[in-house]
Specification:
It comes from [Candida] arabinofermentans NRRL YB-2248. Keywords: Hydrolase, Metal-binding, Metalloprotease, Protease, Zinc. It is a single chain. By secondary structure, the protein is of the alpha+beta class. The protein folds into three domains: 14-192, Metalloenzyme, LuxS/M16 peptidase-like (Cytochrome Bc1 Complex, Chain A, domain 1, 2-Layer Sandwich); 207-342 and 366-419 and 460-481, Cytochrome Bc1 Complex, Chain A, domain 1, CATH 3.30.830; 512-731, 2-Layer Sandwich (Cytochrome Bc1 Complex, Chain A, domain 1). Helix content is 41%, strand content 15%. The strands form three sheets. Strands 3, 4, 5, 6, 7, 8, 9, 10 and 11 form a nine-stranded mixed β-sheet that branches. The radius of gyration is 29 Å and the shape is globular.
């Protein structure tokens, strides 16, 4: 309601209309004690126009809503219905249901226990029953809560700091002001309002069982973390570092990690680690597990593995403490390294929302790291001497820090401090042995409509017999990253240079961008290079490779064979390549999008290990494809087929506009097959067919490639072509057939109808302008 209209701009939805017409986006999100309003607009040059820049116009409209909103009664029901519609969607989302389950477990004296998102009943019916006027309530809430002393503002744009500051002052300085605290606005305002923690001793050791028919049950393990439990002079910094380490260690999927054990036992499908802040100084450490069918029958075993992992790896002894010290030192190194080489072109709206939220928190311990978004250990920490290997004094400092972290982990990630929210069909609840629910009956939640019951957890940890240990040192971490003293000096120098630099907006240097150059088009491959010299591209690269078999005939069976082969490769590489993701590498393997027999490989990240990742991928493809019979056991093959079938079946539930787009592709593209055909051929696919396909999939290939970034032409001959030669038997173009699109008759209008389970309708247009190489004909069509 606040962004519908204002006294200065009374036109309804003017803010929304203006942003969308300019090609931008907008949103508002409430999370706990904070509500964020934000918008994003494309950058336009205003050099050749006398009109007010669109960003300035939108900023004036936007700011007016926080000075004099109208809260027009005519639009109240519209907004309530929009909230109710969003709530209806939330009722089908497992993560929303399980998060509401956590609210039901919380202390009833804490606001987190309440239903928070609202629906038609809570926003309309209840107010009518109480005889309250909703507009009067909105005005009262606005006057009490929307004051400048509890607001933060972030503006980002391609303008000088002087210009951005001027925009901020012009648009927001007239909002009524009160004395604002300089640090920790959230704590100073909200903490006095709370009578207790959200999860006290009486709420711990509980599980909420939510009955819902789902094929992928969700298990959320929560470990409450109260900030005043963490010692030290810089509490907030220590808290954030500990939470980040929790996510890194317990979210790890490399070899010997707890999650790899769970994957290999086929207990989990996916894992996530989160650290949600549910209220001021009430954080949670969360391990979110999507369970397989086998996992639902072994929840006690999952808990046994988790707690044994924590107990063994963080037990206080010299060997463990030394390992933890090296691990957290390298974690700090990687955080510094990633920040130094961070992509500056990240999404502006998310960055502004994150920064505005941080400005309301404790800035005393973390202001130095505000732009990064989370802190690192550095010379501001008492006794810090750089990375673990830099000196004996540094080793001693990291050893003490490791002892602190080990103690925190051992005290926090325990059965006694655990809360569980679990959503699954009721039939799976009987497999959980550690429950005490005999006298408890199911209840129905009045807001989300699910059946649930709350039980005590009676779990007693027992040793796990398999091998368990901390993640090994990250093999993708460059040696330069281990020198934290040097990294911090580079960051400090960059900061000082920024302070001393001009406040004018720097102009983009067009010389940094170059067009792709074809450096080789010999028989069998086409190699392109796009060199970039900007600071954002320094020491980074992107590699795209497409290998297409020139002898195999495209078919639905061959396409499915390739998908199964690549699935097996990805599964084998997950543990090995997971550490590379921490260094901001990314990689992907998928079948040719054109339907022919081929594979596409994408790799991006720092240049120094990019070609090592390529070698690992090509080597794994070679190993599996050439010795499929020996390496791939029948059980692994069956699981790969199941994963592919589930992926195909999931297409039945995608939005209607995606169904329409895919349907159009099936009709128009030469080598594409309908979902029904794919499922039918998949049922008929056997082990020997895939094994034979894999053996010959790379006998003869045509290769096309693009290498982009801080690269040289010689990278192909030194690092790429020799690696591909390990996999491809012969490079050739003679038998390569370019897949084509159906050529529609001139002036023909074709209509294709189809059905989708999605209740919404979708319409997709395809306009064919002519043969790609016939430029004159295409120009005439447009004229």
């Amino acid at each position: 309601m606040i962004c519908v209209s204002s006294s200065e701009y009374p036109e309804t939805d003017l803010y929304k209309k203006t942003v969308l017409q300019a090609g931008g986006s907008l949103n508002a999100v409430t999370v706990g004690e904070k509500t964020s309003f934000y918008f994003e607009l494309p950058s336009f040059s205003d050099a050749n126009t006398t009109e007010e820049p669109i960003f300035s116009t939108v900023l004036k409209i936007f700011s007016s809503y926080f000075k004099s909103p109208l809260f027009d009664n005519k639009y109240t029901n519209r907004e309530i219905n929009a909230i109710d519609s969003e709530h209806t969607n939330n009722r089908a989302a497992l993560n929303k249901l399980t998060f509401h389950g956590l609210r039901l477990l919380a202390n009833k004296e804490h606001p987190f226990n309440r239903f928070s998102t609202g629906n038609f009943h809570t926003l309309h019916d209840i107010l009518q029953e109480k005889g309250l006027n909703i507009r009067d309530e909105l005005v009262k809430f606005y006057q009490n809560e929307y004051i400048s002393s509890r607001m933060s503002l972030v503006i980002r744009g391609p303008a000088s700091l002087n210009k951005l500051q001027k925009l901020a002052v012009e648009s927001f300085s007239t909002i009524p002001s009160q004395n604002a605290t300089q640090s920790n606005i959230i704590r100073d305002y909200w903490l006095p309002k709370y009578k207790s923690d959200a999860f006290g001793e009486h709420q711990k050791g509980k599980i909420i069982l939510i009955d819902r028919n789902t094929t992928h049950p969700l298990l959320r393990l929560i470990f409450p973390l109260n900030e005043h439990h963490i010692n030290g002079n810089q509490n907030r910094k220590n808290t954030e570092m500990y939470m980040n380490l929790f996510c890194s260690i317990l979210g790890d999927e490399s070899e010997t990690s707890v999650n790899t054990i769970l994957y290999k036992l086929n207990y989990i499908i996916e894992v996530m680690t989160l650290t949600p802040e549910i209220s001021c100084e009430n954080n949670m450490l969360e391990l979110q597990l999507t369970l397989s069918s086998l996992g639902t029958k072994n929840i006690d075993k999952i808990l046994t593995i988790l707690f044994d992992y924590v107990q063994k790896t963080f037990q206080q002894n010299d060997k463990n403490t030394r390992r933890v010290a090296k691990l957290i030192s390298q974690f700090n190194s990687i955080e510094l390294y990633n920040f130094l080489y961070e992509d500056v072109n990240q999404e502006a709206a998310n960055e502004c929302r994150g920064l505005s939220s941080l400005l309301l928190n404790d800035l005393e311990g973390t202001l130095r790291w505000l732009i990064k978004g989370s802190p690192c250990w550095d010379h501001s920490d008492d006794g810090y001497k750089g990375g673990y290997g830099e000196s004996d004094a540094a080793k001693s400092w990291w050893t003490r820090k490791a002892a602190e972290i080990s103690s925190l982990m051992s005290q926090t990630v325990t059965p006694a401090n655990m809360i569980i929210s679990y959503i699954s069909p009721e039939s799976n609840f009987k497999f959980i042995q550690c429950l005490d629910c005999l006298p408890v009956e199911f209840q129905e939640d009045q807001h989300f409509g699910f059946r649930y019951k709350i039980c005590d957890i009676k779990f007693k940890p027992t040793p796990y017999e398999g091998e368990i240990r901390l993640p090994r040192p990250n093999p993708f971490c460059p040696q330069t990253a281990e020198d934290q003293t040097n990294l911090l000096k580079i960051l400090e120098d960059a900061s000082q240079d920024s302070i001393a630099s001009s406040l004018l907006c720097p102009k983009n240097n067009s010389n940094n961008a170059t067009n792709p150059i074809l450096i080789s088009s010999e028989d069998g491959y086409q190699l392109w290079v796009k060199r970039e010299t900007s600071l954002a591209s320094k020491d980074k690269a992107f590699l795209s490779l497409e290998l297409t078999n020139t002898r195999m005939k495209p078919s639905a069976t061959n396409s499915l064979c390739m998908e199964i082969l690549l699935d097996l490769v990805i599964q084998n590489l997950r543990e090995i390549l997971y550490p590379s993701l921490e260094l901001r590498y990314s990689y992907d393997l998928f079948p040719s999008l054109k339907g022919d027999v081929g594979v596409i490989i994408h790799i991006s990240g720092p240049i120094n290990k990019l070609y090592s990742i390529l070698l690992l991928i090509i080597t794994e493809i070679k190993n599996i494809s050439s010795t499929f019979d020996e390496l791939v056991k029948s059980e692994r093959f069956r699981k790969a087929r199941v994963r592919l079938k589930l992926k195909c079946e999931a297409l039945n539930n995608i939005p209607s506009y995606e169904v329409a787009s895919l349907g159009l592709m099936v009709v128009l593209e030469e080598y594409t097959w309908s979902l029904e055909d794919r499922l039918q051929y998949l049922e008929e696919l056997d082990f020997q067919t895939v094994a034979h396909f894999s053996k010959h999939a790379f006998d003869s290939c045509y290769v096309s490639s693009l290498l982009q970034g801080d690269v040289n032409d010689s990278d192909y001959s030194l690092n790429i072509v020799p690696v591909l030669q390990k996999l491809v038997g012969t490079f050739e173009a003679e038998h390569y057939h370019y897949p084509s699109t159906v050529l529609l008759p001139k002036s023909a209008n074709l209509k294709i109808l189809g059905a989708s389970p999605d209740e919404t309708n979708a319409l997709v247009y395809y306009v064919q302008t002519g043969i790609r190489d016939n430029l004159s004909e295409k120009q005439q069509e447009f004229i």
